[in-house]
Amino acid sequence: MSQTIWSTRPADLYGRRKRDRFYTALWGVGVLFGGFASASRWTTSRIAPVRRTNSAVVTKRELLAPDVVALTLADPDGGLLPSWTPGAHIDVRLPSGRRRQYSLCGPPGRRTDYRIAVRRIADGGGGSIEMHDTFDVDDILVFEGPRNAFHLVTDEHEVLFVIGGIGVTPILPMIQLAHQHGINWRAVYAGRSRQYMPLLDEVTAVAPDRVTVWADDERGRLPPAADLLADAGPTTAVYVCGPPAMLEKVRTARDEHANAPLHYERFSPPPVVDGVPFELELAHSQRVLRVPANRSALDVMLDHDPTTAYSCQQGFCGTCKLKVLAGEVDRRGRTTEGDDEMLVCVSRAKSDRVVIDA
Ligand code: FES
Question: Mean pLDDT across the stretch 180-205?
Fold first, then answer.
């Protein structure tokens, strides 16, 4: 299992460190880009883990914003890369052992090359810095995937895309595909300022009259839910990718008149739902950690050991899976957890204590 190193919790997609209050209260568990659900049903899909490992050569490196670099990747032998659909991401294996997920943001389905974009988070877990500082043209990058938990439903008639910051990466190819399919779409793209809104030119280039730009520094405030959803009628499907506060704002507002699905993807852990406190015993160190109702076991483990392995923080990549030696697990993962396994980023305990092989 790869090891990841982080010293603090991740910033949001705008690069702000301060947590949204709602999510601070509920913080605990950890899909970019992560998962999708219906506003009325809030179902979650199970995602098969992708174990296929590929390598690609970096053919281009470009600065999309002061803190965002884009890498273009190609098959080292000049062949085609694995097929993908808009909303898909790849799991990058960094030289340090960290694993990080990045959405494919090139033209929909393109296989001659991929493009990913990475926002540098100075005080994050180190993955984005490693991506920025390690990879240049001609370097080889190892990845798994692509896989997709954030599909565009192409028989949708009306679609609103709500974008926050680097959340543009899965949405851009979705917009391009929606346009190709003749879907009646609109988009609102919000960010702290235009220069920090990567790929803004490419989003507006698809159809300028369909895109609303909300730059906080021009409007003097964050976008209210009513503005984010101004173009969403009762039958409009909404796709949103952005920071937790934006997701929650849209989800809450959309719940009030949900006749059409809300699809979303996260770059950060989802809140714990119906959490009950439990004890987590780490067999190797014989430490017992108290996991409160509103935090994940992974979150608590990271306080204890910042090198604890994780990637998606949302229960589908399998990176955080640990062997269970005793206790009963409340399995909440979207990928398979065996009878003696636990995805510590999302799963919890049914018994008072769970002993894990860590
Ligand atoms: S970190 Fe991906 S399943 Fe836990």
Answer: 97
